[in-house]
Amino acid sequence: MSPDTPDPHRPADTPAGAAPTPHAVPAGPPPSGWPVQPVQQRPRHTRAVAAGLVLGLTASGVPLGLLWAALAPDTPVLKTAEGAVYAQPQPEQPIAADGWFSLLGIGFGVLAAIAVWTLLRRRRGPVNLVALTVGALGAALVAWQVGRRVGLAGYQRLLDTAPAGTPFGKPADLRAGGIDRLFGVLPVPYGNLLLAAFAAAVTYTLLAGWSRWPSLRPEPEPGGPGWPDAPGAVGAPDGGGPPGAAGTPGEVGPAGGVSWGPAGTPAPTAAPEPPAPGAAGPTRG
Length: 285
Fold this sequence. Notes:
The chain is of the alpha+beta class. Helix content is 35%, strand content 9%. It has a three-stranded antiparallel β-sheet with strand order 2-1-3, with helices on one face. Strands 4-5 form a two-stranded antiparallel sheet. Helix 3 runs antiparallel to helix 4, helix 3 packs parallel to helix 6 and helix 4 packs antiparallel against helix 6.
């Protein structure tokens, strides 16, 4: 192509025979009327959601404790001059109370993990795992304190006023779990109080390990609904999207950033090959 007939696709300041530079994205705000692709941002208020999750799970320990008190049997005792003693030499009711609490704690942890994984699918990750574990532990502590106090006032009244030889029942309490004092100061839960948190953490970790998405969050399948190149999607070649939308030919931009430019920008032409030896050069007028 001679200098008298300049290449329409080559900028005015590009010398003849030089390879044209690709179309660069202009800096600054886009001109009026040009399409803009919004920048994708991470979800906000992560700490607030985690705190709400901990509080919600901890509060759910109230109905869990009431259920435990309803299922666990009372231990029969007998009033004596020294206080209450077991009416049977080796009662099974305390073991049943620990068993019911353990089963309810494990079931609660598994269900809580599945619910958090399903309902908070856009916020999956280690933050939710920590909040779930702490919330399940709080729920177990609340359930223990609520369940053991159901009927405790009546038991204390009978223990103080009933005559010797009166049989009555002692409310359920834990023998395989409780709170110990580390160095005599720091309270540390132990035993079956930890089962709910353990079940929740293990279940959530297994769900994360079986997830088919590396980010643990649902992503559109290639070519499926929501994929930019899917037929009918906005910005797809045959989707009828607005000029300059994502997927329109000629649009170049950083991943996850702002991409804007005039629709229909011609693709840069390849650099012309050098002439063969002995070939006649362009005719100069």
